[in-house]
Specification:
Blueprint lengths: L2 H6 L9 H7 L10 H22 L8 E5 L5 E3 H17 L2 E6 L6 E2 L6 E9 L10 E9 L10 H4 L6 E9 L3 E6 L4 E7 L4 E6 L10 E3 L10 H12 L3 E2 L5 H11 L1 E5 L12 H14 L3 E3 L19 E4 L1 H13 L1
Helix pairs in contact: 3-4, 6-9
The protein binds 2,5-anhydro-1,6-di-O-phosphono-D-glucitol and manganese (II) ion (2 copies).
Length: 335
């Protein structure tokens, strides 16, 4: 990128609308064709529709189980299915996407052979919290396709490593709704202003504190943690850290991003590779964490360097403040 382009970009103030922000920063992207910008807008639009459904969840008949199962054999909630439909529809109409990987579908969905991008998405994260009015989210990763445009999709387009992401982010449907994303030039957060129907910049250039005092892990599974994990958790207690775990990855990650902390979903006796999915949960959050100055690892390898072999592959996940993740890893190395 030329220094002229770098210097011609104005730092936009808090309150700037997402559309304007995307447009202003379009030249940061090496394939500055406007397609990626359009994709981000499509995702933002679909999220507004999902946000509307989420807010009405208690009033209309979209709570509860669907009676079907997702790719991992887990019970699908009505909102899981609905959110998947909303995002798929928005990304199909735009034409920029050639293939979509979703938690809710076994195989990838072939969209437009002329599209230059592949998307991996967890349309509704934190399903168990839908019925109890607790924060839930959406997670997305965006890749450039590797094969030639216009040709059928190849495996190399789909199974890309996290380091190849060109953009990633999440939407948090919380006490306010936020969209947080990166294109590899830092992390920015936008809060949804529902009366305007706009996301506005509220958290510019987000940085995760290098140290933190929050640890987030489902301790209900403690009996089946590896010894190194149990020892690290004991270390957190000895340090009088605070335990915080909602059970919605997006919400747990977001809190730790703002306050400093570590989120761990380790391997357990039941889930030998942990529970979380590499392609549409961990990679996006790992990219965001690193862009904000934090770290993400499976305990041995940087998440962004893991080569997926399967769309729905799981991985142990340690993510958050740099010094905390390094400390957790030191317990694994010693064991
Ligand atoms: P999803 O709702 O997309 O299936 O994801 C649920 C995930 C994640 O959001 C959360 O951190 C984790 O499951 C919680 O799992 P436990 O209940 O095992 O702690
Ligand atoms: Mn999830
Ligand atoms: Mn989900």
């Amino acid at each position: 990128m030329s220094s002229f382009m770098e210097s011609s970009r104005i730092a936009l103030p808090i309150g700037t609308a997402l559309d304007r922000f995307i447009k202003n920063n379009q030249d940061q992207f090496q394939y500055a064709s406007g397609e990626l910008s359009q994709l981000l807008r499509d995702i933002a639009l679909a999220s507004k529709v999902v946000n509307r459904e989420v807010n009405k969840a208690g009033l209309i008949d979209i709570m509860g189980a669907m009676g079907s199962q997702n790719s991992g054999g887990e019970q699908q909630q009505k909102l899981d299915v609905l959110a998947n439909i909303r995002f798929t529809r928005a990304l199909t109409k735009g034409g920029e996407v050639c293939a979509l990987v979703s938690e809710e579908t076994e195989s990838y969905v072939d969209l437009n052979n002329d599209g230059g991008y592949v998307i991996a998405i967890d349309p509704l994260d934190g399903s168990s919290n839908i019925d109890v009015n607790v924060s839930i989210g959406t997670i997305f990763s965006i890749y450039r396709r590797k094969s030639a445009i216009g040709k059928p999709i190849q495996e190399e387009d789909i199974l890309q490593t996290g380091a190849d992401q060109v953009a990633a982010g999440y939407i948090l449907y919380g006490s306010s709704t936020m969209l947080v994303y990166t294109t590899g030039h830092g992390v920015n957060g936008f809060t949804y202003e529902s009366t305007l129907g706009e996301y506005v910049l509220s958290h510019a250039n987000m940085r995760i504190p290098e140290d933190g005092r929050i640890y987030s892990i489902n301790e209900g599974s403690a009996n089946s943690f590896a010894q190194s994990v149990s020892e690290y958790i004991q270390y957190c207690k000895d340090q009088h850290y605070t335990a915080r775990y909602i059970g919605s990855l997006v919400a747990d990650f977001h809190r730790n991003l703002l306050k400093g902390g570590i989120y761990i979903y380790p391997a357990t006796a039941k889930d030998k590779n942990g529970k979380l999915r590499l392609m549409y949960e961990c990679n996006a959050l790992a990219f965001l964490a690193e862009q904000a100055g934090g770290l993400a690892t499976d305990g041995h390898t940087r998440i962004l360097e893991l080569k997926p072999k399967d769309l729905h592959q799981r991985t142990p996940f340690y993510v958050g403040s740099k010094n905390m993740v390094q400390k957790a890893v030191s317990f694994i190395k010693e064991s």
